Amino acid sequence: MTTDTRKVTTGCLFVALKGERFDAHDFAEQAKAAGAGALLVSRPLACDLPQVIVNDTRQAFGELAAWVRQQVPTRVVALTGSSGKTSVKEMTAAILSQCGNTLYTAGNLNNDIGVPMTLLRLTKEHQYAVIELGANHQGEIAWTVSLTRPEAALVNNLAAAHLEGFGSLAGVAKAKGEIYTGLPGKWHRHPQCRQ
Q1: Ranges for the Mur ligase central domain (predicted)?
Q2: Residues 57 and 17 sit within 8 Å (Cβ to Cβ)
Q3: What's the CA gap between 104 and 121, in Å, rounded?
Q4: What are the tens digits of pLDDT across the range 50-67?
Q5: 80, 132 in Cβ contact below 8 A?
Q6: Considering only Cβ atoms within 10 Å of each terminal Cβ, which end of the chain, N or C, has fewer?
Q7: Same domain (yes/no): 113, 163
Q8: Considering the entire predicted model, what is its pTM?
Q9: Do 29 and 122 belong to one domain?
Q10: The sheet that has 13-15: what strands, in order across it?
């Protein structure tokens, strides 16, 4: 499965995402020429490939990734923060890789497209996964953590970053705190952390 025509492999599902400045539905013929076997689209296309038509390809992409996540017993750590997420992710993955096969977010693919891309790479061979969750608006982490289903979560830090999407430091804290909605059962706050 891919969202990028440059990464189509023979027989794969091409997911036609639509953004503010692009519409991958326009590249269905390119995906077919590259060997795609089917399309995930939000409207019927004239392309001669089997098509799964959904209301929202971005949501369906996430739901497919969540299904993959549910199929594997991988122990997942999710992390977020205003800065340093990628460094903390790399360090955490390096530590866990000493204990077993560890998958982690490539680069900073930490949004509602990147997180599903990472989850789709999960296999039964992965004992651990470290998933970086980013956000530029309220609700984004709540969505990606629902896909990820971690058993541990970390907010590295909070700072006045991305205020255009959150309005205030309190808004940043609220958005980053969404990561805890994905934890099973009861969670604990370190006693030195301010509320």
Answers
A1: 80-184
A2: yes
A3: 9
A4: 999 999 999 999 999 999
A5: yes
A6: C
A7: yes
A8: 0.89
A9: no
A10: 13-15, 38-41, 51-53
